[in-house]
Every structure is written in structure tokens, then in C-alpha cells.
Design goal:
two-stranded antiparallel sheet; 7 strands; 2 domains; Catalytic domain of cyclic nucleotide phosphodiesterase 4b2b; globular; 6% strand; 14 helices; alpha+beta; single chain
Length: 386
């Protein structure tokens, strides 16, 4: 786990926590007594709406967006009497009967295609691959597929009862995957949700594509699923509890012969390593694994730092949301300490493959963010609140 307010697993202590709301700093205006009591948006209005053509619940819906800030969007929606439940990560779904009213209030009319392009250009759009509800089926299929070769091969203990045991283990594996995914989908996770898990698995596949085996070892797949299974913003303790959960959950699969003891040991080691992002001594490695495996795992977890600028800003916005219980000054101080710590390393990524892929863009992102904190901290905080 890469904590944005700590370094090497040691949390930075701050005072002055603040109370977090659903939209963090995007609270609605005071005047919401009736739907028609709108604030004035004649200056710098950047709220847009497309025609009501999307069918659901016996009517059709429009999408309401901002091209500047979610704070502005929430404020406009609240003044219009639109429920928070209508918000879907980057837009509001509004029924057809509100369309004319919202246009009169100042929402600018765009076609569906124009609205989509506007939202993408704003940097506020959340792609489908980062939406937990959209990637859920694919992740569950991938989880079960990781075990399929072993469930379909008579390598289990008690071979004489293989068919019955396979049925039991198949159900057990599916239940474990569902339980883990529910943990990843907890509502307080704004960055460390299943979108991060999905991307980390993809990063591992990319790093292993040129290795002899050509695919990510099962132990690393499992470690990815468990490494942030517990996420309460408590550095060190989260990793300890995630490691404990991995051991408790996977030991029965070792007993049944579905996993090897060395694989469980490797899962435990990898989850523990995310607390510090440091390599253990070679002597501590389970049989069959190399330091390169740990390097790949830790690098895959860090790869978000090399994302394109729009994705990096969404990551940073998610981090700010997860740390919304810290006031602005505390967050700024902690984040800049983190940035300087990472930039001060001789190299951010441990493996040669990741170094070639991600080192340069990661340093560019981190340096650009640090410059923003130094030159215009209030502007950056305002952008992250959107």
C-alpha cells in the first residue's frame, strides 16, 4: 500500500482533523428550501445537460455535468432539489420532467455526444474501467479463472474424493472472491478500491509478459487481491490485518492441496512488503521465487504514479477524499513530505522493466505536483475538492 501521507509505513501525525461529508468540500448551498430557489449562475456558468433520452424506471433521463468542478455541480444540483442519490461519480441522472426547469436555471444544452466530449475534456470523467460496479463481473471471472487450472487438475489431496472436493473448493473459492471484492468496494475508498486492484493485476501481467513463464504467478495474483483488503488509513496496521486475513483465508486451500505452503508464504511476504515498499533479504524468499517477483509486485502497486496527467489528477483527487479527515494544511504538509521522499530516491521503481516503463513519467508527475503545492497550494486544493 502506498500511503500518500506517510513514508515507509510510518504515519505522519497531524492535528486539526475535519469532518468529512459525502462530497468532502463539495457541500450544498444553504438555500435549498424549494426546487426553484436557485443561486445565480450568470457568471462563469459551466453546468451542462443533454436531452432526456436514457430510459430507466418508466421515464427517460438526462445527464447533468460540470466542465469545471464537482463542487459547482453539487451546488447547482442541491439548489435544484436534486437528491444526492442521483449522483453517479461524475454526473447527475435527472428525469425528463426537470429538463426545462434546469435549462431555465442556467444549465447549457448539449447533445449527448457533445456532453460526453465536454466531460472527458474537463478531466472529471470517471472511465468505466475505474467504476467498481462496472468491473465487478470481470474481476470475479478473473479470480475464478486464476484457480481453474488447479481445480480441473487432479493434484488435490485425497484424490479418491477429487470430484466432490473440487465442487466444494470451487464454491469456497467463489465465496472468498466475493468477500474480498466487497471489501474492495467499501464506500470510503476513493482510490484504493477495486479499480486499483484491476489496474494492479493488469500491471503485473504487463511486467510478466516478457518473463519465461509469460503469466503472473498465482501467489502474486492472490497477494494483489489481499494487499489492500483491509484499508482504514492506518499505515502498518492495515497491512498487518491484510496479511492476517490472507493467512486465515488461504490456509484451508493449502490444507486441501489447492495451494502450496510456499505460495502462501509468498502471499504473506508480499502483503507485508507493501507497508514499506522495501525488498526483504533473499534468504527470506520461499522456494521457487526470486527478488524480481517482489520487485514486480511493488512496482505494479506504484505504477499509478506514472499515469497520464488526467488519470494522475483523478488519483490525487481520490487520495484527498480518503484523507478528508485532515484539514487542508495538514494534507498539504503530509503530501509534500511524501513527494520529496519519493523524488529523493535514486530510483522509484525496483525492476528494470518498470524502470523503463514508468520511471520518467512518474518523476514528471511527482515533480509537477510538488511544484503546484509550492506555487499555488490553494489552487490545487480547490481543484482536488472538485
Amino acid at each position: 500500500m502506498l500511503y500518500p501521507l506517510s513514508y515507509e509505513g510510518v504515519p505522519i501525525q497531524y492535528k486539526a482533523p475535519r469532518t468529512a461529508s459525502r462530497h468532502s468540500q463539495c457541500s450544498p448551498p444553504e438555500d435549498t428550501r424549494t426546487r426553484r430557489h436557485y443561486r445565480s449562475y450568470n457568471v462563469r456558468m459551466s453546468i451542462y445537460i443533454d436531452p432526456p433520452t436514457w430510459p430507466a424506471h418508466g421515464t427517460v433521463f438526462s445527464h447533468l455535468i460540470s466542465d469545471a468542478s464537482l463542487a459547482e455541480l453539487h451546488e447547482f444540483a442541491a439548489a435544484a432539489g436534486i437528491s444526492e442519490r442521483a449522483f453517479d461519480r461524475d454526473h447527475y441522472d435527472v428525469p425528463a420532467h426537470l429538463y426545462d426547469e434546469l435549462v431555465r436555471a442556467g444549465a447549457k444544452e448539449l447533445s449527448g455526444a457533445e456532453l460526453t466530449r465536454t466531460l472527458i475534456a474537463s478531466g472529471l470523467r470517471i472511465p468505466l474501467k475505474e467504476r467498481p460496479e462496472k468491473i465487478r463481473p470481470r474481476l470475479l471471472r478473473a479470480w475464478e479463472a486464476a484457480f481453474a487450472p488447479r481445480l480441473n487438475t487432479p493434484r488435490l489431496k485425497h484424490v479418491e474424493a477429487h470430484a466432490e472436493l473440487r465442487t466444494q473448493l470451487t464454491a469456497q473459492v467463489a465465496e472468498l472472491g466475493e468477500s474480498l471484492l466487497q471489501a474492495w468496494e467499501q464506500p470510503h475508498r476513493a482510490y484504493h478500491h477495486s479499480g486499483h486492484l484491476s489496474q494492479m493485476l493488469a500491471n503485473l501481467d504487463r511486467l510478466y509478459a516478457h518473463r519465461t513463464q509469460g503469466s503472473t504467478p498465482l501467489a502474486l495474483v492472490l497477494a494483489a487481491w489481499f494487499h489492500d483488503a483491509v484499508y482504514e488509513g492506518a499505515p502498518g496496521e492495515d497491512e498487518r490485518r491484510s496479511e492476517q486475513l490472507a493467512n486465515t483465508s488461504l490456509e484451508p486451500l493449502v490444507t486441501a492441496g489447492l495451494l502450496d505452503g510456499d505460495e502462501l508464504q509468498m502471499v504473506s511476504l508480499l502483503v507485508r512488503a507493501t507497508a514499506t515498499h522495501e525488498l526483504p533479504e533473499s534468504a527470506d524468499l520461499p522456494a521457487g521465487y526470486e527478488r524480481a517477483d517482489i520487485q514486480f509486485f511493488l512496482d505494479a502497486d506504484m505504477a499509478i504514479l506514472a499515469a497520464d496527467s488526467t488519470r494522475y489528477r483523478r488519483y490525487l483527487r481520490g487520495v484527498r477524499s480518503e484523507y478528508s479527515h485532515f484539514d487542508d494544511e495538514a494534507f498539504r504538509a503530509g503530501r509534500t513530505t511524501f513527494l520529496r521522499s519519493i523524488l529523493g530516491r535514486k530510483r522509484i521503481f525496483l525492476s528494470e522493466q518498470a524502470l523503463q516503463l514508468w520511471e520518467e513519467p512518474a518523476r514528471a508527475n511527482l515533480q509537477a505536483e510538488l511544484s503546484e503545492w509550492v506555487q499555488d497550494p490553494q489552487g490545487l486544493l480547490q481543484a482536488l475538492a472538485s
